[in-house]
Amino acid sequence: MSLEELKALQTRVTTAINTFEDRQRQAALAEMAIVAAKHGTSLEQLFKQSGGKKAKLPKPAKYKHPENPELTWSGFGRRPSWIIELVEQGNDLEDYAV
Q: What are the mean pLDDT values of the chain's consecutive 10-residue runs (98 residues total)?
């Protein structure tokens, strides 16, 4: 097979997978609607009550860059490069605590 034929095949396979997944989702929703109706409610009411995810508030800064106060780090997640550099230079992280 040529590269062009392989790409065309890839497109057809991707389309077929997406179509299959859409049908599966629709079937699952239909089954869920039947169960909800048996309990005297609807999917809309059930999903509305869940409220979804709550927005996470940003964590307050715990450390501040000594020369650029706009550079901060909450102490959570991956360490920013400026923190890594300061620690590698032998500085104590607590010296930069807010």
A: 94 94 94 93 80 75 91 92 92 90
